[in-house]
Specification:
Blueprint: E1 3-8, H1 14-17, H2 28-31, H3 43-46, E2 52-55, H4 67-74, E3 79-82, H5 87-96, E4 100-102, E5 115-119, E6 124-127, E7 130-133, H6 139-147, H7 150-158
Parallel strand pairs: 1-2, 2-3, 3-4
Antiparallel strand pairs: 1-5, 5-6, 6-7
Helix pairs in contact: 4-5, 6-7
């Protein structure tokens, strides 16, 4: 089953993902309706569980706020696939259980509103009849994602 692609440009920062004024809201559920508000005010109302965010270089730059990947996960975004990520956004995403995949060639071969299929375990994404190789996450990172994030993973390890 294909998932809709939401395509964003290079250097999308954490303030564009979730603006700082919404960090005062009590929880992620309250914040998620404002995701990408400055780039696409209707994004949160249109995105569906399983959809994929595709972006250019340096996705998630800016502040280290964990709420940025958290609102994407809360909206049901399956993964963010970008040419590159800001390091702290990448780590925060894995920690909360949101797959972040580096794929250099996908961005130029998919349109906003198009469709793509991610095979996380194979490290590939298919769009427009082409399969693109992505950075395959190591098994331990896939285990963290499967557990729903680092805290859930560590809690399972202790049990």
């Amino acid at each position: 089953m294909s998932n809709q692609v939401w395509k964003f440009h290079n250097d999308v920062d954490t303030d564009q993902i979730i603006a700082s004024q919404y960090l005062l809201l009590p929880d992620i559920e309250s914040m998620k309706q404002y995701t990408f508000e400055s780039l696409d005010p209707s994004f949160a109302g249109k995105v569906h569980p399983g959809d994929i965010v595709v972006a250019g270089e340096n996705f998630g730059c800016g502040s280290s706020r964990e709420q940025a990947p958290s609102v994407l996960k809360a909206l049901g975004v399956q993964a963010v696939i970008a040419k590159s990520f800001a390091r702290i956004f990448y780590r925060n995403s894995i920690n909360i259980g949101l797959p972040v995949i580096v794929c250099k060639d996908l961005y130029d071969n998919v349109e906003d509103g198009g469709e793509a299929d991610l095979d996380l375990s194979a490290g590939t994404v298919t769009a427009n009849g082409k399969t693109f190789s992505c950075t395959k996450l190591p098994e331990y990172m896939q285990n963290i994602l499967s557990a729903g994030g680092l805290i859930s993973f560590l809690n399972k390890e202790e049990a």
